[in-house]
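Hi U.,

Before I forget, here's the chain from the pilot set. I'm dumping it here mostly so it's searchable later in email.
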Amino acid sequence: MTRPLNVFFSIDENYIQHFTVAVTSLLENSQGLLFKIFVIHNLKNTAKLNNTSQFLKQKYRVDLNLIGIGHIDFSRFTTNQHYTCATYFRLFLADILPKDIDDGLILDADLVITGSIKELHDINIANHYIYAASEAFVDHNTMRLNKLGLNLNKYFNAGVLLVNLKKWREDNLTQKFLKVADEYMDRLEWYDQDILNVYFANNWGEFDKKYNAVHLQNELPEMPVIIHYASVSKPWYYVDTHPYNSQYWKYLALTPFKGTGSLGFSVKNFLLKNGRLTKRKMRKAGIIK
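Structure:
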């Protein structure tokens, strides 16, 4: 019998729809694999998440394991409209998940899976703390962090991580992550991702970028297995040029959120998106400043 793969998502109120799309795409494309899905959250009202849980159970016979962590103090971390407390949930996984969960796959909620992740499932992580895919802008990020006195020669994106929680617990990594945060937080750019890269400092296994395709400007020769809508390019915005934004809408149509429209629709954005008016002409017409 296939060993179940533990999958961990961290969400807040704004990402329940996108999480539903992500997990639906996972289950649609990984037939033959077994999953135990854990959702880390700090929601005060779980009604919408419970509806998603019921939908997934009925359609895919998968139960969500919901874990609330409202008791954790996040005051030491930088937060804003783009980086909420949910950004940092992954740093606490070894402590908040059941102690019999030895390893698993961390997935951000702003992604879709287009094919089987069996290759990730089959990686032997026993001798590593973490496996990841290299970030798109390695040179920029290593140079930035090396100015802090580090010596990085590679840098990973934290949106898709295979983690060895058993080793994390044995070496008390939660507290060590917090020490990194306390020392560097006000000098970091990508916060939780930087914390992990600083701590692991080149000491991580690497899988193919097709399992975490980020910062894409054009379509690739082959469809990535995991499309990660990192940074500002999000397919649910009306004005968005991500080359694979249609994949999000494809899987959204399979969820209870089907029919949900794009955010940011306006006459101005419609005209811009459809090329009816240039910004120069719109300024002249007084539509924008």
